[in-house]
Amino acid sequence: MPKPEAARPHPLAGRQPAALRSLFRAGRYTGATTGLAPGRLQCNLVVLPHRAAQAFAAYCAANPAPCPLLYMGAPGDPMLDALGADIDIRTDLPAYLVHRDGNSGPAVPDILDLWRADSVALLLGCSLSFEEALVAAGVRLRHLERGGDIAAFRTSIKTTPAPPFSGPLVVSMRAVAAADAGRAGAITTRFTHAHGAPLHTGDPAALGIADVERPDWGEPPTIQAGEVPMFWACGVTSHLALLNARLPLAITHAPGAMLITDLAADKPPEPISSS
Amino acid sequence: MPKPEAARPHPLAGRQPAALRSLFRAGRYTGATTGLAPGRLQCNLVVLPHRAAQAFAAYCAANPAPCPLLYMGAPGDPMLDALGADIDIRTDLPAYLVHRDGNSGPAVPDILDLWRADSVALLLGCSLSFEEALVAAGVRLRHLERGGDIAAFRTSIKTTPAPPFSGPLVVSMRAVAAADAGRAGAITTRFTHAHGAPLHTGDPAALGIADVERPDWGEPPTIQAGEVPMFWACGVTSHLALLNARLPLAITHAPGAMLITDLAADKPPEPISSS
């Protein structure tokens, strides 16, 4: 069995969330936030006009595992104090994507010129939260050691639609030692704000996945002897639903470039405030 | 393969939630609520003095999958209007159990004489909600067809303690056709208020279960050829933690005799009101 390579420390390792957000705001880092500020809650971002935001919130409520909506800002207010000191959601992520009519443009460092009086920020949980907990409990996650993107698959299962949002359920796959599978499942049940328990373990065909070595997103995984494939609901689900809706304007975080909050990864914010 | 026996209709089938609660209040039915008012949210009940209720709520928050706390009443107020018309939690369940110092007494038809100025009702989600959705989607659940109690197992996994509450994670097991396993997992992800996705599928040993044919609660299950065992977090977890705490007084619903609310099974109440 190949030895895991020691992960190289990130140049921003050890920085606190507020210091990281200042760097991002100043445009001095536009990369991924994976591995930064361990133990802090990171969130996916969607920015929509108020009416579409309400519909998107309904879609999330109907599909809580793939789309765990944690927080919804007030219309027009870019400051998200409930999630951390002085967070300005227009500047404090490393990079953003702007989607027009379902087509995605290149990454941009801020969205100051796109923010409007009816813009609403929606923050969704992500799997970083539970991956840290798994690793802390001694569950080996090889995609983290390897530093690659996790494999994600479109399934044959449809999410519950909430017009104009609909689409397939997307899952991420982690190969886990069979002896660790029960514990990994139990640990992730606590992260209902971050996709929760695995929705399937075992035969990929049960999810309509024809070839587990050919993911729709991320890098081809390897399943070693003594490991079982475990599938969790994946945030790409909400991204697909967003693009499927072909809205005139939608904004998201750039891939991997998430909001780093001041909150603990295992403590989501109080129930959605909002509008 | 034996044919499933057609389930005999329940004598109270077709009654609305308010009508059922009236019967229970009048002491005219003290049995289980399984199968009654399909499509309506049913809840497990725990009644504790205010201080212990706060601690129990913390235990539930730390273990959301086995202990999905849906609602917490105001101290001393037995009326739970948020859950249904005219619900008096002291009388409107078919039967209750009273536990003193961790010892359970016989079932009683009401708790009028035990309700105090600082009594708090806590309502927890249960797996009936998602079982109906599974059956509606064509997933065969043989324990329902057979009419027996579901098999539940003490695992080797500990819940996150919140003193004085602690104990092992208990899981329920359903044998599901391998081809249905992915869909069953995906459907139950939507029921984060009712144990959510399965925490494990496959080898029972991964949960510390030595013999899947000898459950700690319920009837011995059979796993037929072509089926996989699927394990969900189980409400017995909170019951064990409650008894482990050996409080001077705690009240719960009697086994299977739950609160039938006016709410839809797939729509939990608004986030906990309370105290």
Question: What's the total number of strands of chain A?
Answer: 11
Largest sheet of chain A: 7 strands, antiparallel
How many alpha or pi helices of chain A? 6
Rg of Cα set of chain A: 18 Å
Mean pLDDT of chain A, as a whole number?
91
- Helix-strand string of chain A: HEHEEEEHHEEHEEHEE
CATH class group of the largest domain in chain A: Alpha Beta
Shape label of chain A: globular
CATH topology-level name of the largest domain in chain A: PSTPO5379-like
Summary of the model, kept short:
With about 280 residues, chain A is an alpha+beta fold.
Give an overview of the whole structure.
Two copies of one chain form a homodimer. Chain A is of the alpha+beta class. The first copy, chain A, folds into two domains: 112 residues, PSTPO5379-like (3-Layer(aba) Sandwich), CATH 3.40.1640; 100 residues, PSTPO5379-like fold (2-Layer Sandwich), CATH 3.30.2040.10. The first copy, chain A, is 20% helix and 24% strand. Chain A has six helices and eleven strands. In chain A, strands 1, 2, 3, 4, 5, 10 and 11 form a seven-stranded antiparallel beta sheet that branches. Chain A has a four-stranded antiparallel beta sheet with strand order 6-7-9-8. The longest helix of chain A has 13 residues. The radius of gyration of chain A is 18 Å and the shape is globular. The termini of chain A are far apart.
